[in-house]
Design goal:
This protein is 19% helix and 15% strand.
Length: 95
């Protein structure tokens, strides 16, 4: 078995759903130069608040789907995930 790649990232967020993206956005706003990464193995995110309108027949289910790494307000590639992966081990280091 090949050795896993090791990468040092100052801030690593596990989960690219609404909470993970929100935390990343707040941290980036507070410090634009902060090195951060988001680990999200899913290909798609479903925006659950829209499901009420899906159930009412206003929108089809696919209207709530967004591909991971997509930032709807920006075409800037820095807002897209550079790789889709899972996390097998994370080792915190001192501050």
């Amino acid at each position: 078995m090949a050795a896993a790649a090791t990468k040092h990232i100052p801030v690593l967020i596990l989960g690219g759903g609404s909470a993970g993206i929100s935390v990343a956005a707040r941290l980036r706003r507070a410090n634009p130069n902060l090195g951060l990464g988001i680990v999200e193995p899913s290909e798609s995110h479903y925006y659950q608040p829209l499901w009420t309108l899906v159930g009412a027949g206003v929108f089809p289910p696919e209207a709530s789907r967004r591909r991971e790494g997509y930032h709807p307000l920006s075409d800037d590639p820095r807002h897209a995930a550079d790789e889709q992966s899972g996390c097998h081990q994370a080792e915190p280091v001192g501050r």
